[in-house]
Amino acid sequence: MKSVGSFLAGCRWRSAALVPLALGCFEPKAFSQTNGSWALPRTNLLVYRNSKGRVLPVKNKSDWLKRRAEILKACENVMGVLPGNEKRCPLDMRIQQESEHGTYILRSITYASEPNSRTPAFLLIPKTALHSPHKLPAVLALHPTDMQYGNRVVVEQLRDSYRAYGRDLAEREYVVLAPAYPLMAGYQPDLKALGYSSGTMKAIWDNMRGLDLLEALPFVRRGRFGAIGHSLGGHNGIYTAVFDQRITVVVSSCGFDSYLDYKDGDIRGWTSDRYLPRLLDYRNRLEEIPFDFHELIGALAPRGVFINAPLGDSNFKSQSVDAIVKAAAPIYRLYGVGENLHVEHPDCGHEFPPEMRELAYRSLDSALK
Known about the structure:
It is built from eight helices and eleven strands. By secondary structure, it is of the alpha/beta class. Strands 3-4-5-7-6-8-9-10-11 form a nine-stranded mixed sheet, with helices on both faces. Strands 1-2 form a two-stranded antiparallel ribbon. A hairpin with a 2-residue loop joins strand 4 and strand 5. Helix 4 (199-216) packs across helix 5 (232-243).
């Protein structure tokens, strides 16, 4: 299998400057009024807290995994706790509708992501999968914010500003699952009744159960999946991959910047029920948010990450993305795979232009085919 970086060798791309961080340097991020302790710095991932609470330099992968575990706990403090076996149930996939589209079949389905909750999704199956003994790679195609169409926008060309990348990938012989996002368009689960603190965690669980569904299909290659998404889908994929290492490559288009930089410090866009309502508690003390994308991108290592961060994105600042990549890069170098973390800066707005999509698709090909 080729590395994610190998296909980019002959292409135009620019990564953020990768500057080594001093192992022993530690400046606390902020003192948290929530848990009464100093948070580790978001910009220096090469420190961790040992079992006695002492902050030490990361010297090896074992040390880093202690820091990574703390990052996941911090995520759960805001998102809510990741569900466990108590929410697993038979997937009971039901096909609502099926249609043929050239080289692939499109199925509108639902699956039981947990008791008393069915997740709607589109399943795109290349026709070759049904007539070949060879198993095909599979991806989650996670949709951007669209209150009218929801997940339809990744399988139909309904918006001029971005392409139906789920359809594109089916035509490239990927099995594609495109689940709906909670509290968007026609998918309206009762988060409180289901025990969730955020729509983000419900989406993570729905996506993880979607991976279970893909693994159960006889024509899908198990154990290694991709996730691709634009805007909302761009950070939905990151969040899911942080918690589920079956995702071995992530494509995030216009998906994030630092919570501190978002809208010049106006965090409210992140705080509706469908996203991360607990972030509103930090609106006047953003430095105390217990995790940020510096740590999340680092937590994806050593897996492949392709980031599309346009220079003119009005939602997420490209300079902030560069700072995040700079902070996460030492973890990729710790694993000896610095080439697996890439960022592109096309000169456009909040878009996923054709040349970026092609690079993204090739990154999936390199990791999964």
